[in-house]
Known about the structure:
The structure is a homodimer. In chain A, 42% of the residues lie in helices and 9% in strands. Chain A has helices at residues 3-22, 53-64, 86-98, 109-125, 148-170, 176-182, 206-215, 253-256, 271-276, 311-345, 369-382, 409-429; strands at 141-145, 193-194, 221-223, 248-251, 264-268, 350-352, 360-365, 388-392, 395-401. In chain A, α10 crosses α12. In chain A, the strands form two sheets. A five-stranded mixed beta sheet of chain A has the order 1-5-4-3-2. In chain A, strands 6-7-9-8 form a four-stranded antiparallel beta sheet. Among the domains of chain A are: 3-83, Up-down Bundle (dopa decarboxylase, N-terminal domain), CATH 1.20.1340; 100-308, Aspartate Aminotransferase, domain 2 (3-Layer(aba) Sandwich), CATH 3.40.640. The first copy, chain A, is an alpha+beta fold. Chains A, B: Its EC number is 4.1.1.28. Chains A, B: Its cofactor is pyridoxal 5'-phosphate.
Amino acid sequence: MDTAEFRRRGKEMVDYVADYLENIEQRPVYPDLEPGYLRSLIPTEAPLEPESYEEIMYDVERVIMPGVTHWHSPNFFAYFPAASSYPAMLADMLCTAIGSIGFSWAASPACTELETVMLDWLGKMLHLPESFIAGTDGHGGGVIQGTASEATLMSLLAARCKAIRRVLETDATTSESEILSKLVAYTSEQFCATLGTTPSCAFDRITELGPFCNKENMWMHIDAAYAGSAFICPEFRPLLNGVEYADSFNFNPHKWLLVNFDCSAMWVKKRADIIGAFKMEPLYLKHENQESGLVTDYRHWQIPLGRRFRSLKMWFVFRMYGLKGMQAHIRKQVALAKEFESLVRADKRFEICAEVVLGLVCFRLKGSNEMNQSLLKRITKSREIHLVPCQLSGRFVLRLAICARSTESRHIQQAWRHITQLAFELLQEQPH
Amino acid sequence: MDTAEFRRRGKEMVDYVADYLENIEQRPVYPDLEPGYLRSLIPTEAPLEPESYEEIMYDVERVIMPGVTHWHSPNFFAYFPAASSYPAMLADMLCTAIGSIGFSWAASPACTELETVMLDWLGKMLHLPESFIAGTDGHGGGVIQGTASEATLMSLLAARCKAIRRVLETDATTSESEILSKLVAYTSEQFCATLGTTPSCAFDRITELGPFCNKENMWMHIDAAYAGSAFICPEFRPLLNGVEYADSFNFNPHKWLLVNFDCSAMWVKKRADIIGAFKMEPLYLKHENQESGLVTDYRHWQIPLGRRFRSLKMWFVFRMYGLKGMQAHIRKQVALAKEFESLVRADKRFEICAEVVLGLVCFRLKGSNEMNQSLLKRITKSREIHLVPCQLSGRFVLRLAICARSTESRHIQQAWRHITQLAFELLQEQPH
């Protein structure tokens, strides 16, 4: 494919993407097929000779689309949202085309520098304490990780490295296995200090945990993967109070802040802590500016060596929405969750199972776990909407998360009508 | 930005990308700026109100491009290649638009199933032993990791988990810290068993290492991050002999197989080994098909929970190039490296420092390390081509890697003329 053909196919793809998203509601949100469906639809080996682009795009509809769970359908209410917006998609095209690998400052200075500044912008939107902001002379700063799991792992490794060093400073003769056997990590059922858990969007009391961690010289990492995006709104910012005690903090703009996956924002108070755990300096990655103190070599902040130019997505989204536009997006989705909550509360057969703070509603039929499992099975089978369950204190609970940017009030009303219709049928069949 | 505007802006972006790549040679390959350049060019905070798309694209040229190291310039010979092709870029647009997160089969069946089959296709292109192929009833199989570092970490964790289990099977009373203190990892200077090291593209003798590892019941992981792509050519496949002894193997199609970053292909002989180390099953990720034995939930194979639909890039590239097209790409780049090698060998002032097996040439001026450092400094400063150095047995060596898809013979000839001109000037200035 030469550049001329790319111009043509690229524009066709833009239209295909626009058509897909514009008409996504017409597709069943959840696929109707059996595991292993795809293998029988395509050859067992790659072709020897090139195939035509038409054949491939034909197969996108024949092979791929029937097997896609449409996360951006307005009827998708499962898990948590996967962020998506047109500005982020445009930035992603640019990121792919530039195709630089930003493991060091020199490998593509713009990639590193825009990332540092975008994490500062975002940190300021969240009113993070000054100590997390890189600025021109700070000791803290931010980085884009792929996912919250990676951010958590990085904080764990940095904490471990710091603890080992502390022991060795006191007694340099301590053996490594002796130190390792003494290290302790405290977690709740949901792992580290969490703001907005996945099952029910619950919040740990970090204003209580924080001072304790600081006093005991323990590393505190706070994960607000989903909820973090909401903290750009002043009315939700109090949920982040206590972050001043944390050593590291992360949340996922790729969940709820309109920046397509992957983009997990992580900040640390002391860059030296995280860099110290991973520094590696082969000659082929050295560059003349690295000792200037002004540059960041992000490979020291993460597990992978390579990294994409992901801050472009943030830059495009932050500028094309503006803070007010992003706040409006969060508020609209919280309002939709509240609307659904009201519908549930108005129906005596149902109950709300956790406080609705942001965009997630946990609810169930008053009755047995089995009955709620049956209800969810019917919902899944109908393929009109898609939900997943959670377990709260031993009870089987349904989760409705506001996910797609295209979800409107009518989808909420429709979803509720659909759920109550299936519940009605189910209850009719129950023995009295 | 609504869908109508996205159609317009998306097509403009396709043209911007095509123009960028078509005219990339006119940009200096390496930026001329000081660390911290970007911060002064943009505001310190995100805007409150939305900005226009025109302003942002204006800033792409004003703020971003001057700070980009152009990895896809035909004059970029640093590090190793970052793969890029138009079919992969089109597939990436589709991947972003679908925007599904494939942590489980149910979260998007097509995402999981295409990945398994694409890793089978690729494994067959490499003539991997049957035990690495998933097929319909195999015990092995492949997965896309983000980078080779992640693949290596996964294999290390799986090996550790397997070793701990083995001890506990013999003596269930052994304490965990006792076991941990006994675990050993053997590595060379370049870490695990490597085919094609980064400094000089050297190859470990895996036909010798392999039987030893198998006999001692040690996990063998082979990393062929760069070189792996070449094994699709029969003439280079012997370099992979011995892979039959490995427990896990990985290489990066995102380096040399035309699939844009990130796409690191990893295979294991026993899926159970890698899954066993990481299985986690909260209720919200369970689905009715997961116990059927037919489905793969890739979240058990990796550090992150979320994952993009990256196999689309492989599918587009494999089909639009065909195996023959991909082989031609590899052969062309190896031939360019050989062409450069001949030029170096024909000049008595220079020497070749490592066998040129694939697309990397390690060379230096006969003389001191200081002289070669000076030569590289002049090359970097001229910004006509971009190289990085390596250290081989204490000697400072220059690396020229064939990277961009657009590099042709004339760029090699031009690069050599440029290097010899700078070397001539340098040698003239030396005291006699």
